[in-house]
Each structure stands twice: as C-alpha cells, then as structure tokens.
C-alpha cells in the first residue's frame, strides 16, 4: 500500500450508492453483521446486542480533477456538518421513515434523502485528503 498522502481538489460527478450510513464496529470500524438481536464483527470478533450497534457515515463518490476520474469513499464524522446530524441520528430518521412508509430495503436511504445528498454534493468542488 502506498503511504504517500496528499490533498486533491476535485468536483463530485456522482453519488455511487444510496447507503450513506452503516453499522460500524467501534474497535476497527468494519461493517457489522446484524441480525434481529445481535451484531458481530467478522474482522475483529467484537459482538453485542443489535440495539447497541453504532452507525458511521460512508459516502461513495465519483470525482474528477482537471485530468482524471476517481472513485473515493469518505468515512466518519467529517460528514456530520453536511448532513446536519450524526450518522446515529440519521439512521434513526431512516428507520422511522421506512417504518412509516412500509419500506422494505433497510440499507437504502429514502429517495428524498438521496436527492438532497445529490444536490449538496454533485457539481461542487471539495478538497479531499487521500
């Protein structure tokens, strides 16, 4: 793995998926496997009650600088100011919306949220730490 780090000024071309939060292990930040009662981290073996799972932001983007296209994923609380809430609170809102609307896809965000994220990011220029 290349250990060179730098900054990249680029514009967001598209949002790559509609899942903006994920249940994250608090030890290694890997995605947790959830069932109705328990969670399990396949990477570090951490387990617990599903109701205690914590969520983290994951925003997958296609970006472009003046020369190249890149696929990039932004993780964590640096996205709190853009969403206006923590990933935990956004997940609660998504769950509440899905329960009220009878939605069956618990990994997908409501369409109105996807549209808002697209409006906020697509066409805008950001500086990414890579």
TrEMBL record:
Question: What are the Replication factor A C-terminal domain coordinates in residue numbering?
Answer: 9-94
| A biological process term (GO) from this entry | negative regulation of intrinsic apoptotic signaling pathway in response to DNA damage
- UniProt-listed Gene3D superfamilies: Nucleic acid-binding proteins
Instruction: Output a single Gene Ontology CC term carried by this record.
Output: cytoplasm
Which top-level group of life is the source organism from?
A: Eukaryota
Instruction: Return any one Pfam family short name.
Output: Rep_fac-A_C
GO MF term list: DNA binding; zinc ion binding
Keywords carried by this UniProt record: DNA-binding, Metal-binding, Zinc, Zinc-finger
Q: Which family is annotated?
A: Belongs to the replication factor A protein 1 family.
What name has this protein been given in UniProt?
DDIAS protein
């Amino acid at each position: 793995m290349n250990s060179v780090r730098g900054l990249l000024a680029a514009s967001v071309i598209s949002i790559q998926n509609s899942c903006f939060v994920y249940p994250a292990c608090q030890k290694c930040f890997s995605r947790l496997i959830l069932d109705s009662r328990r969670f399990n981290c396949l990477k570090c073996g951490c387990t617990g009650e599903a109701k205690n799972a914590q969520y983290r932001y994951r925003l997958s983007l296609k970006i472009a600088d003046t020369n190249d296209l890149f696929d990039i994923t932004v993780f964590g609380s640096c996205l709190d100011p853009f969403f206006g809430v923590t990933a935990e609170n956004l997940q609660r809102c998504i769950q509440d919306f899905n329960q009220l609307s009878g939605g069956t896809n618990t990994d997908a965000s409501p369409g109105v949220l996807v549209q808002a994220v697209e409006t906020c990011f697509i066409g805008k220029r950001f500086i990414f730490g890579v």
